[in-house]
Design a protein that fits this description.
about 5% strand
Length: about 120
């Protein structure tokens, strides 16, 4: 499992870990019952606090992406299709929001953004 931490962005490290593990699950690179690295080994590999990794793992478990078995480790949970779809929608919504904000910063009107969006949906671009 390859996780890359970017300390030059404003996203907290634990959120970067959460986002990257979710992405690996969504892509199918991590499958149900796959074991995640131990908190200690991942913290050592990433050169960060074990508490940061533990916080990320706790959030993943709260959201239903992983299951932790005391003394055995943290595993990828059964993939809930609805949960996965909701996560993908959230990611798409964020990407669309960023694109709209970029368009507005460039002075493109909302109507032009809508028109461009429709063209892209139709595959005419």
């Amino acid at each position: 499992m390859k996780i890359i931490i970017n300390t030059s962005i404003m996203v907290p490290i634990y959120e970067q870990i959460i986002d990257q593990i979710k992405k690996l699950i969504r892509s199918g690179e991590l499958k149900e019952n796959d074991i995640l690295p131990s908190v200690r080994s991942l913290s050592k590999e990433l050169k960060i606090s074990a508490l940061t990794v533990k916080k990320a793992y706790d959030y993943l478990e709260e959201e239903g992406f992983t299951i932790t078995v005391h003394g055995k480790g943290t595993y990828v949970a059964a993939v809930n299709g609805e949960l996965l779809l909701e996560e993908q929608k959230k990611e798409l919504e964020s990407d669309l929001e960023n694109a709209i904000q970029k368009g507005r910063r460039c002075g493109i009107s909302d109507e032009d953004i809508r028109s461009l969006f429709e063209l892209i949906l139709q595959g005419d671009v």
